[in-house]
Predict the 3D structure of the following.
Amino acid sequence: MCETGVKVEFEKKAFEQIRQNASQVLNSDDAPDVMEYNKGNATSGLLASQGLLTNLNDYVSEYGWDKIITGSLADTGKYDEQGMMGSGDWYGITTGAVK
């Protein structure tokens, strides 16, 4: 593990809390920098299409994540303009890719 000196504030929420309030939380001044959320058209795809998620394309290229995360694992992090999963811009990195 690499020591970066970054301070991390961890807040645990129940899935139902996140599902019901994600768009409100992300559309506020208190939005988290990183958040784990369900992957899919009706969840992350909806938030991406509403402009509530940060496009990660530059980071994916810079760190070579697109070479490491491929196939169906990559599909869960990419959404098009309509919020459909599987193509388009990167808005997340699946937890299935984390080792």
